[in-house]
Amino acid sequence: MLRRHGDEAKLIAGGQSLVPMMAMRLLRPAWLIDINEIAALKVVATDGQTVKTGACARQTALERDVAADVRVPLLKQALAWVGHVQTRNRGTVGGSLAHADPCAELPLVAQMLGARLRLRSAKGVRDMAAAEFFTGPMMTAMAPDECLEEIQWPVWQEPRTGSEFTELSVRHGDFAMVAAAAQVALDAGGRCTRAALGLGGVGLTPLAFPGLTARLVGVRPGEKDFDELAQEAAAQCEPGTDQHASASYRRHVARVLAGRALRAAHRRAESVQ
Ligand SMILES: Cc1cc2nc3c(=O)[nH]c(=O)nc-3n(C[C@H](O)[C@H](O)[C@H](O)COP(=O)(O)OP(=O)(O)OC[C@H]3O[C@@H](n4cnc5c(N)ncnc54)[C@H](O)[C@@H]3O)c2cc1C
Question: From atom 36 of ligand 1, which residue's Cα is the shortest distance away?
Answer without folding.
Answer: 95
